[in-house]
Amino acid sequence: MTSAAAAQAAWFAAQIQSTYPKVWPETVRALMVHSAEWTDALKKQFLPSQHTKTNRERLLRICGYGVPDLERALYSAANSLTLIAQAELQPYDKNEKGRPITKEMHFYDLPWPKDVLLDLPLDTPVQMRVTLSYFIEPGPGEIGWKDRYRYASHALRFKVNSPGESKGDFLKRVNKAAREEDEGHPGTPSDSEHWFFGPFARNKGSIHSDIWEGSAAELANSHFMAVYPLVGWWRERYHLGRWNRRTRYAFVVSISTPEEQVDIYTPVANQVGITVPIAVET
């Protein structure tokens, strides 16, 4: 990062922190990434018109998540909705035999305005974006540069249920995916059809952001989300005494529709008890 870019990023982060003084650094970073989009020039240069997930991964590797937008980071329009969560979990524990095990997973039922979504024409395109942000503790010493389980203290992942997938089936899929990644298998791309990047490309580093695209009817039935840990050196090198540490994370989820006259913000605001300003004509 150049010195000018660093100054711009610091200013951007300061605006978020000033507007929402209680948010964590994890949340500030999540909002910055979540608000970013690629310019037309970037997409023209790095994303062919008939692009594949390989092309998209190249775009992410070269251009990151694009150019952040402060207005989008701070506020929701009527035809869009942004949910923010801050939480902490304990990734690992020891069993009765003293062996390290994975401990906690967090499950969310997102309060989508189902009635509003289902009232739209069935083929109305809807976009959902999910960003998960956390910080890792690098492995002590030089060990770990070539071993993903030894460099990062822990790793977190997110998944959203597929349209029509029940809560029970979704939890089974999450547990299966966690086991496969722990065993060094990348898993299957079965849940990546709707995602811009998919799990293979987005699950790098300690901030993960992806865009889901589908119909309004499909999104109305995709409202379960899980945040779960993978193996890190806190667990594998448990003799260092970090196996019971807790970690913080923030996630941002937003949905938007192309219909500017469709208000998806107010129903959710009323559901969770947020005061909605009313414009009064004089």
Automatic annotation (TrEMBL):
<protein>
    <submittedName>
        <fullName>S8 family serine peptidase</fullName>
    </submittedName>
</protein>
<feature type="domain" description="Peptidase S8/S53">
    <location>
        <begin position="2"/>
        <end position="66"/>
    </location>
</feature>
<dbReference type="InterPro" id="IPR000209">
    <property type="entry name" value="Peptidase_S8/S53_dom"/>
</dbReference>
<dbReference type="GO" id="GO:0004252">
    <property type="term" value="F:serine-type endopeptidase activity"/>
</dbReference>
<dbReference type="InterPro" id="IPR036852">
    <property type="entry name" value="Peptidase_S8/S53_dom_sf"/>
</dbReference>
<dbReference type="GO" id="GO:0006508">
    <property type="term" value="P:proteolysis"/>
</dbReference>
<dbReference type="Pfam" id="PF00082">
    <property type="entry name" value="Peptidase_S8"/>
</dbReference>
